[in-house]
UniProtKB/TrEMBL annotation:
Pfam families: Epimerase. CDD domains: GDP_FS_SDR_e (cd05239). The keyword Mitochondrion does not apply. Its EC number is 1.1.1.271. One of its GO terms (molecular function) is isomerase activity. HAMAP family: GDP_fucose_synth. This is GDP-L-fucose synthase. PANTHER family: GDP-L-FUCOSE SYNTHASE.
């Protein structure tokens, strides 16, 4: 069945793309596939001409569309317009070139942070468009929401089955550990590294009270392979640990301190924004399909990420 599969992975050099690369090299299910992992050096996907050339060159049968302008709360607060425009262009170019090239299946990536801010919990797949997103990242959120709209339109007008996944906060090796731009977990790993080295406190931004669900990039990568091979719906699917596994930012700081073997003081800078308080998502749909899928325990995944960062400090994105 796998013979002849040519899978183009946009965003192949990022956190999720690198994890997918590791996962497919370990997976017997992917034997016989040709995987093409792309970075922005191969093409700027905001350009339709460059995107079309990629599809002509590689002639993919399947696409995993991970490329995006991505960042943590503080980068989103500053660049909502860029998040909106860059992601709108990339998404339309990739989906429409895939459509023109006759690609059978496209799996694109949304995020739980695009859901309505004022909502009931837990959030599920039917609620994406039920109200405005949190104002901190409205540019990213509306661009991502339109991926779902566009998938539905390709199905309605042309019968094409493009779909999307909705991961919660992701972390792991090859993340963006830049403190100003990146997400909370890699940011705290980098800060803990510096605090341990300099004998200074670990400074957590905000109150530490907001709550998040985290998925380890290696678990997400195994789920993406399953989605590509087995999931047939056009409607999105949330890829998340359970509601009971939601943790506070303070819990994250403590897990990172343990993972980095940091025993100094942890302090909270409450002058910094907390962002969205929570976005608790239900993984009931995923559990219906995969009741036995086993997630890596959070503390173990954080420790592996810390070890990766220390080992790769000189070349890590930071
Ligand atoms: P990442 O580490 O920042 O990687 C982004 C990827 O996109 C890189 O490969 C980058 O290429 C590529 N890219 C960016 N702009 C591009 C452009 N103009 N043309 C071509 N390629 C471009 O991001 P990630 O965390 O792996 O995110 C992957 C997907 O998961 C994204 O769709 C994101 O929205 C989604 N997601 C992420 C999280 C999270 O917590 N990280 C949570 C939910 C959903 P270069 O390496 O060459 O720059
Ligand atoms: P979000 O989950 O989409 O809101 O984005 P982030 O991954 O950036 O997480 C933001 C939450 O973590 C907010 O409550 C921040 O106040 C808190 N936080 C604490 N320390 C940091 C840090 O060093 N970097 C980032 N990005 N957020 C931090």
């Amino acid at each position: 069945m796998a013979e002849g599969f040519r899978v183009l992975v946009t965003g192949g050099s990022g956190l999720v793309g690198k994890a997918l690369e590791r996962a497919v090299s370990d997976s017997e299910k992917c034997e016989g596939f040709k995987w093409i992992f792309l970075s922005s050096k191969d093409a700027d996907l905001t350009s339709v001409e460059q995107t079309r050339l990629l599809f002509e060159k590689h002639k993919p049968t399947h696409v995993v569309h991970l490329a995006a302008m991505v960042g943590g709360l503080f980068r989103n607060l500053q660049y909502n317009l860029d998040f909106l425009r860059n992601n709108l262009h990339m998404n339309d170019n990739v989906l429409h070139c895939a459509f023109e090239a006759g690609v059978k299946r496209v799996v694109s990536c949304l995020s739980t942070c695009i859901f309505p801010d004022k909502t009931t919990y837990p959030i599920d797949e039917t609620m994406i468009h039920n109200g405005p997103p949190h104002e901190s990242n409205f540019g990213y959120s509306y661009a991502k929401r339109l991926l779902d709209v566009q998938n539905r339109a390709y199905f309605r007008q042309h019968g094409r089955r493009f779909t999307s996944i909705i991961p919660t906060n992701v972390f792991g090796p090859d993340d963006n550990f830049n403190i100003e731009e990146g997400h909370v977990l890699p940011g705290l790993v980098h800060k803990a590294y510096i605090a341990k080295r300099d004998g200074s406190p670990l400074v957590v931004w905000g109150t530490g009270k907001p709550r998040r669900q985290f998925i380890y990039s290696m678990d997400l990568a195994r789920l993406i392979v399953w989605v590509l091979l087995k999931y047939e719906e056009v409607e999105p699917i949330i890829l998340s640990v359970g509601e009971e596994d939601e943790v506070s930012i303070k819990d994250v700081a403590e897990a990172v301190a343990a993972g980095m073997d940091f025993h100094g003081e942890i302090v909270f800078d409450v002058t910094k924004s907390d962002g969205q308080y929570k976005k608790t998502a239900s993984n009931a749909k995923l559990r219906k399909y995969l009741p036995d899928f086993s997630f890596t325990p959070f503390d173990q995944a954080v420790k592996e990420t810390c070890e990766w960062f220390v080992k790769n400090y000189s070349c890590a994105r930071k």
